[in-house]
Design brief:
By secondary structure, this protein is α/β, with parallel strands linked by helices. It has helices at about 80-85, 105-110, 110-115, 130-135, 210-225, 225-235, 260-265, 270-275, 295-305, 325-330, 350-355, 380-390, 410-425, 435-440, and strands at about 25-30, 30-35, 35-40, 45, 50, 55, 60-65, 65-70, 95-100, 120-125, 150, 155-160, 165-170, 180, 185-190, 245, 280-285, 310-315, 335-340, 365-375, 400-405. It is built from 14 helices and 21 strands. Strand 8, helix 1 (about 80-85) and strand 9 form a beta-alpha-beta unit. The structure holds MU-OXO-diiron. MU-OXO-diiron (FEO) binds near residues 107, 173 and 249.
Amino acid sequence: MIADSPTPRGAEPGQPLDVATHRGAVEISPGVHWIGALDPGLRTFDIILRTANGTTYNAYLVRGSRGVAIVDTVKAEFADEFFKRLESVASYGEIRAIVLNHLEPDHTGALPELMRRAPRARLYISTRATSMLKALLKPKEDDRPLAYDTVGTGDSVSLGDCTLRFLHTPFLHWPDTQCTYLVEQGVLFSGDVFGCHYCDSRLYNDRVGDFRFSFDYYYAHIMRPFKGHVMDALKLIEPLRLNMIAPTHGPILRDRPRRYVNHYRELSTSSLAERIGNEERSLIIFYMSAYGSTARMAEAIRAGAEEQSGVRVSLYDLEGGETEPFVDLIEEADALAFGSPTINGDAVKPVWDLLSSLAVVNLKGKLGAAFGSYGWSGEAVRMIEDRMRGLKMRLPVAGLRIKLIPTEEELDACRDFGRRLSAALIGGEQGRVIDFAELG
Ligand code: FEO
């Protein structure tokens, strides 16, 4: 654990650090400076994330005996602040390397100007970032060729007495993402990983306010859809000696950084599987019903599905639920069925609300099915199926539509629908299409 904040250049020794008023670089570890920017006024990030007290765009400068490296830049609007901090500790002629852990514009907005000012620098990007770099810079035919190298796990760049080693960590949060480890000092420049949208000019995790909510919220929206990739990244990160984690957003994690690594593992580990046992498969049926017909279908589907041993079936009326806990359930389920009546040619809003909330979880390969009662047109079932296909779910049983009130024969068909869905879940035969609307 690092005992206290190093004194930033320009700050009085012993004075509390506040980068809202200190415009220079901040030395966070010997030879390593924070040269980022504060954005306290931001209230929405990437359209989907709320940012109650803004964010930071963290960028870093590493000084070695044979030159300087810049690790990430800032959003374009904050380039002046970034360059002022950089210029307070280095000249552009000293910069030999520009490492881009992630090419999203919040970290590459100052890149074109930095490349112009530091022509001796070479870019280091992950192998999957090449097309993004070209799309970002849009070089013209008569421009000089881009000076960049692609790097992967284990590759490194030497700055003389210090070494930057790369870890390939794709999809955290884009396919291009990587982390960069300063070997000699145990500092991990982690990109978006371990970041959060939390703007506090006191900079360090042991100095800022309580940012636990922001940390978990950020994980839930940025990392959660890629839990498998998080686990792969943790395999690379956990063996490292970690004195500090320096992410691109939010507090620098100098106090017990490994807590955050452990927390990522907890957040990425399925808890439902531990509670009900890995041997059971989980099917969840969600429905809304206008006159009780879709509800009766849901109950019959549940009855049929429950006949299959090894499948735990849950039934939820969306009228009595909240989206967020349902998303948690859905993430850990093996199969989902959605039931909706058709009203004005559409599925009903609570169904869409839930379906539109599922971008934060990975549903690829889960089984899906749709059903519903309708009055005259019955589009809802196929619309729900289209959405599930868009979420990369597999639909082993064709949607089941029933006109108005289900008869006993039709309820038998619902039970059969449930049986077939359960059978598909445990690897049995896939269902045939039953559509009473088409039967007339
Ligand atoms: Fe902070 Fe994915 O950019």
